[in-house]
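Appendix B, Record 12. Input sequence as logged:
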Amino acid sequence: MTLEGTLDVTVSTADGGSSTVEFAFTVTNAGSETVDLQFSDAAKAEFVVREGDREVWRFTEGRVFAQMLSTDRLEPGASTTYDGEWDDPRPGAYTAVAELRTREVVCAARAEFEVDG
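Logged structural output:
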């Protein structure tokens, strides 16, 4: 089983000056066999933002997700994307890390981004 992950980060600023950071974590089955991704709740991906060595934001922190078993099936060559959003971040340079929240499969990606002041 070979999963490849990519993380796209988009920073947008509203007319009032507040920023929003949108994360798109795409997972691709680069192998030759079908992969079943099994999840135990509605949060299928975790997004963590770090400033240097310090964690400054975590997607799942302080949130409640429906407890439900689900499976996303990825045929060979197929991709799926998981999204997250960080509202009103401080200006700065950050590293985002995305990881699947599956029981047995590991896939992660990272991206550098900046929020202007």
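The chain has one domain: 3-115.
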